[in-house]
Amino acid sequence: MILLSNIQGGTELVTDSESVEKTLSIIELISSGGLAGQVIIALLFVLLIGVIYIYFERLFAIKAASNVDSNFMNQIKDHVSNGKIDSAQMLCAQVNTPVSRLINKGITRIGKPLEDINTAIENAGRLELYGLEKNVSVLATISSIAPMIGFLGTVIGMILSIFEIANSGGQIDIKQLSDGLYTAMTTTVAGLIVGIVAYTAYNHLVVRTDKVVYQMESNSLEFLDHLNEPI
């Protein structure tokens, strides 16, 4: 309904219709991106699920690996000093952490030169590190390829838009053109989000793994120093 009213000799146009603000949900945004955009979004979603699974699986494994009793090394040294090698090995088996497995490897070499014991512990340490870093490199790979997949969607979306313009014959279909632009923008954003999440998860796991490695090195040196002490 439109009304005309005179105000101080002038004419004012009054309307009772209110402007409607258009909103767009995430699902609508994805569905507006066309088939190419939906396929790329689906692929990025699968990668995101993989990132979340690997992150929490490795986080719990690393947390369990770092859980070592502060009195563990004192008990090991007491057993070794008293010649109770079997008791020391039994204690290592009960604890069953990377640190205890390294110490157990050293205990099995007691009586041999210290250099041989050190080499055995180092070799065991490499195996433990390999186990801790299992699948972590996948996160680094995803953090690199996810934005690239998103940019691929951007290129596809721009190609679709240019194709519509080239074949419009002077009558551009805004709906078809917007589908290409939606594909370009949504896939870029999704790729960057997955890449950022994967990169953050990777760096956090690396930091946590480094702490466990430091713990293994510290306890191994403490064990070797104990063996090197004069009787």
Automatic annotation (TrEMBL):
- List residues of the MotA/TolQ/ExbB proton channel domain: 96-217
Its annotated compartments are: Cell membrane; Membrane
The record lists the membrane-crossing segments as 35-56, 136-160, 180-202
Protein origin, superkingdom: Bacteria
How does it sit in the bilayer? Multi-pass membrane protein
Going by the UniProt record, its keywords in alphabetical order are: Cell membrane, Membrane, Protein transport, Transmembrane, Transmembrane helix, Transport
Query: Which is an annotated Pfam family here?
Result: MotA_ExbB
The family line of this record is: Belongs to the exbB/tolQ family.
What protein name is recorded for this chain?
A: MotA/TolQ/ExbB proton channel family protein
